[in-house]
Amino acid sequence: MADQASELEALELILTDANAEPTKLSYALIKSITTNFSQEIGLGGFGVVYLGVLRNEKVAVKKLFIEQDFSDELFVDEVNCLVRAKHNNIVRFLDYCADTQGELVKFDGRHVMAELRQRLLCFEYVPNGNLHDYIKGISHGDEWQIRYKMIKGICHGLQYLHKERITHLDLKPDNVLLDAYMEPKITDFGLSRLFDEGQSRVFTKNVPGTR
């Protein structure tokens, strides 16, 4: 419990310091802050997103789909990619979890030791949903200023990614989140490197997400 308390404190400090570097979180802490993954807030081609509740803040935890050919080497590459991406119009990456445990499972009539892998990414919580849902719900009376702010923010975020030589590959309204001030924040860039064509269910070709 003492280790979890110190981890939780470190995570909360990262949220208050924009220059703090992401660190590794334990799977036990992730399960604790998500109440054992009880509140799903998003579902995409790469994983399920759950709400994480800290003492004074909220976070979003993405639990990645793990297939047999999932590459940990590419997972490390993508964590490094997320660490590099620091911009007001990019969803902020906070921490990651890479947990591997052995588990006895029954196979062909006997028990064998199986490897159970969990790979998770922790991001800032962006409260106002995604651009796709916003567009569906807008009325003709919506102010042009708000729309212009969104367009401008998306352009700034995309320009930054390209400057950092990071290719998004799947920019669409679902992958643009809106914060409390309706500022757009781009998410889900680069993760395609972790998945092949069949797994991602989003991309039409297998192109690296970073160069």
3D structure, described in words:
The relative contact order is 0.16. The chain has 2 domains: 1-65 and 92-125, Phosphorylase Kinase, domain 1 (2-Layer Sandwich), CATH 3.30.200; 126-211, Transferase(Phosphotransferase) domain 1 (Transferase(Phosphotransferase), domain 1). With 211 residues, the protein is α+β, with helices and mostly antiparallel strands. Strands 1-5-6-4-3-2 form a 6-stranded mixed sheet, sandwiched between helices. A two-stranded antiparallel ribbon has the order 7-8. The protein is 31% helix and 27% strand. The chain contains 6 helices and 8 strands, in the order H-E-H-E-E-E-H-E-E-H-H-E-E-H. It is globular and about 65 Å long.
Short account of what is shown:
It is an enzyme of class 2 (transferase). It is built from 6 helices and 8 strands, in the order H-E-H-E-E-E-H-E-E-H-H-E-E-H. With 211 residues, the protein is of the alpha+beta class.
How does the SSE layout of this entry go?
Elements: H1 2-16, E1 23-24, H2 27-33, E2 40-43, E3 47-53, E4 58-64, H3 72-84, E5 93-107, E6 110-124, H4 131-137, H5 144-163, E7 176-178, E8 184-186, H6 197-200
Parallel strand pairs: 1-5
Antiparallel strand pairs: 2-3, 3-4, 4-6, 5-6, 7-8
CATH classification, class level of the largest domain? Alpha Beta
What is the CATH architecture term of the largest domain? Answer: 2-Layer Sandwich
Total of helices: 6
Which radius of gyration do the C-alpha atoms yield? 18 Å
Helix share bin: 25-40%
- The end-to-end distance, rounded to whole angstroms, is 41 Å
* Element pattern in H and E: HEHEEEHEEHHEEH
> Mean pLDDT, rounded to whole units?
84
CATH fold category name of the largest domain: Phosphorylase Kinase, domain 1
The total number of structural domains is 2
Strand order of the largest sheet: 1-5-6-4-3-2
Structural class: alpha+beta
Instruction: Write down the overall geometry.
Output: globular
CATH superfamily of the largest domain: Phosphorylase Kinase, domain 1
- Give the beta-strand count: 8
- Please report which band the strand proportion falls in: under 5%, 5-15%, 15-25%, 25-35%, 35-45% or over 45%: 25-35%
Biggest sheet descriptor? 6 strands, mixed
Q: What's the multimeric state? A: single chain
Low-confidence stretches: 196-211
